[in-house]
Automatic annotation (TrEMBL):
InterPro entries: Acyl_CoA_acyltransferase, GNAT_dom. This is N-acetyltransferase domain-containing protein. It comes from Shewanella fodinae. Residues 1-162 form the N-acetyltransferase domain. GO terms for molecular function: acyltransferase activity, transferring groups other than amino-acyl groups.
Length: 165
């Protein structure tokens, strides 16, 4: 397996992977997180154009996709019911979607992101129990609650390079 930057030629396969992920999420009690057309094709295309949309590829098959960047996330400025582990520059991962027939891929993607910057912040929906388990298994610490642009809450997690897994 390897991680590579997505290109616009990959967009159709990426969107198919997101549709599959929505079905999985709904079947696991989290049908509301990616609703109303999210993530939009235009949003993913913009991430590709910015060089921030990545693919996990196994023998030429796209098995996961995600947004990754080392940049401040505006919605992370305010955190309630807790605090971030530090205020150092950090990487963010958004919109992780993994092929439903594959196992261990989310952890592989998280480890790749951590190797790029050594300080990661991630948020997820309260009902996204599979992602919460992946974060816990991979050494992410719950830090508090953040609010995304539409005002809905997300659980915020962080991991530092010296955190044990």
């Amino acid at each position: 397996m390897n991680i590579t930057q997505a290109t616009l030629a990959d967009l159709k396969q990426i969107m198919r992977l997101y549709e599959q992920a929505k079905v999985f999420m709904a079947a696991n009690g989290n049908g509301g997180q990616w609703a109303e057309g999210y993530p939009q094709r235009e949003l993913i295309a913009a991430g590709i154009d910015q060089g921030k949309c990545y693919l996990c590829v196994d023998e030429y098959e796209i098995i996961a996709t995600f947004y990754f960047a080392v940049e401040p996330e505006p919605t992370y400025k305010r955190i309630d019911a807790g605090q971030w582990l530090n205020e150092a520059p950090y990487g963010v991962l958004h919109r992780l979607a993994v092929h439903s027939d594959k196992r261990g891929i989310a952890g592989f993607c998280l480890n790749w992101c951590m190797a790029q910057c050594g300080n990661m912040r991630i948020d997820t929906h309260r009902n996204n129990l599979p992602m919460r388990r992946v974060l816990e298994k991979n050494g992410y610490q719950y830090c508090g609650i953040i609010y995304v642009r539409d005002g809905s809450e997300r659980l915020a997690f962080q991991k530092l390079a010296d955190s044990s897994v």
